[in-house]
Amino acid sequence: MRKVLVGLALTTGVALIAAPAAQAAPKADPVKSLKAQYVPGKGVKISSTIRMSVSGDPVITVRESGVAAFGKSGVAASDRTMKFHLDPVLVSALEDEEDGQSLKDLTRTPTRVISVKQWSYMSGGLVASTLPEGKTWVRTPKVGGSLGGPKVDLFASGTLKTLLANASSYRNGVAKGTIKASQLPGRPFGSRAGQKVGWTLWIDAKGLVSRFATKVSVPLGKGETMDFTADERFTGWGSKVTVTAPPAADWIDSEDLDEELPDVPGMPDALTEAAG
Q1: Of 27, 160, 164, 242, which one's alpha carbon is 20 to 30 angstroms from that of 198?
Q2: How far apart are the two ends of the chain, measured CA to CA in Å?
């Protein structure tokens, strides 16, 4: 078990799905409504909670908030801030591990990630111990998804259409179902092609998604499971959003650092190890 938790120290998974108040059924096609939002200069606010738990006991929780700025065909840039919360028992177990200091930095202060074009700029928790004096950001090749662990990307081309086409129910503005990871664009859960993902979408009367929750459970044996949950909220669709890269004087390229950035294991590896 400890090996599994070490491998998952910087990953997480899916939020508990609470039933919201009933809402009017959407009058517009959600897929068309989403594409209509793809206007340069416009965007949406996003907040999410990502959790990894073992047999119902939370181990890692990541709370993320930020904005996505749209281009003509999807998300063109984003600005996200993540705060990691780890179970004290896990923190104690990892104190002497190679990434122990990085883990402490990660939980002490939020990590902010600005992604523009092909680059991501990271500041705070995750990279705090690697920054030289006078620099507050590290520039890296673009970081996809969330540092809290890969999750289903609502904005990936074809994702919303695929989910709705496989819904087991869709009424009163709520669609839900279960889908194999291999059917999802971008394969967010890596080599676990047969892994099943439970999902729920809440869609408003304008056909826009207001909430998106997913859950993945992996058996650990002896009746235990490792559960990954993600719960995202979308507000302010169509609001004016501008995301710009930090000034060049404030960042350093990751390849110019004196030490390598902390390794952040991905959800695909975590799922494979947990199930193996």
Answers
A1: 27
A2: 12
